[in-house]
Amino acid sequence: MNFELFNPQDNLPNTEKAFSLFPQLEEVYASLGNTPLISVPSPEGKASIFAKLESENPFGSVKDRVAFGLFCDAINKHDFSQGELKLLDASGGNMAKALAHLGYMCGIPVHAVIPDAVSEKLVEELKSVNAVITTVDYNFFLLGVLARGQEIAHDDSSWTLLSQQLNLVNVAVHQYQTGAEIRRQLNGAHADGWVAAVGTGGTLAGVSAALRQDNPQLKILASTPKELPYGSLAAPNGKKKFAGAGGFGWGLRQPFINKFMPEEPSFNQVSYEEAIIAMYEFFQLTGIKIGPSAAANWKTAWKLAETMTPDQKVVTLFADAGTDDEREQGREWFNQLKTSNT
Ligand SMILES: Cc1ncc(COP(=O)(O)O)c(C=O)c1O
């Protein structure tokens, strides 16, 4: 597998060519980002936690931003007089969903390489917008889907591999869009702490770069699944993990973090069960639906906030809304835990 970063950016990809060839993208762009930064339950007498609510994006997750950026960048680089543009990427699910919808809107074929453990509902949705789907055994997630994506691109060069794990457009989108929004929304204040889950590491690295501009002392704590943490020497495994994030296994580290961040961040390990229970608890407390990685981030942000003073702010990001089935599972586990503790 190739692990080299490429395509350095010092701004968001230009949208001019994309909008002129596919004017329907302007509507998506208008509803992309500018998500609310909400105040969320925080430890008493300690720092306050704020979260960017990314489920408000047009296709329901933070990945809509990156998919849009990668999409425009691929359009900018493609010579349409030489043939059609066909896009391929490996994904845990949210990127596949966003790319498939964008492709469908523009008549651009999209091939998604996803783990075989994704929900039936997502597979149905991908099929309904004509995505080509390749599934990979979840026992090899995350590395397995990345390797398969590179293999497909190698065997059939008509597919353009977007490579969200290595393409620095991903980091740029979070630095110049997500991070810039947070800086504006803090209204002259600065973040003292920043928490994100690491899938590609684009969110963590990009937003860190933006927030450090206002506070070079920014404390960073990342969420990682307990079942296969970032940098783990263990082999990939089929244990359930909170979605959207994960270590590679075999000691490999996400290149955006390993090569791009000035120092390796600290990691907080959150188990699948803890994340699912926290999804339910958060919904009970606020009435707001958040997904497993968001719930893991809430727990991690809470931990960081406990080390800080009441005048300080910890910012995090809630990537998606999760499913009602997961919240129901969280309710069951929450009640079982309560019973066993009494
Ligand atoms: C639900 C969810 N949470 C977190 C992440 C991690 O984001 P990043 O890839 O920027 O590290 C993703 C990415 O796919 C995701 O889908």
Automatic annotation (TrEMBL):
Keywords: Pyridoxal phosphate, Transferase
Catalytic activity entry: O-acetyl-L-serine + hydrogen sulfide = L-cysteine + acetate
Class in the EC hierarchy, top level: transferase
SUPFAM superfamilies named among the record's database cross-references: Tryptophan synthase beta subunit-like PLP-dependent enzymes
Record domain Tryptophan synthase beta chain-like PALP: where: 32-320
EC number of this enzyme: 2.5.1.47
Domain of life: Bacteria
Pathway(s) annotated for this protein in UniProt: Amino-acid biosynthesis; L-cysteine biosynthesis; L-cysteine from L-serine: step 2/2
GO MF, any single term: cysteine synthase activity
Pfam family, one: PALP
Required cofactor(s): pyridoxal 5'-phosphate
Name listed for the protein in its UniProt record: cysteine synthase
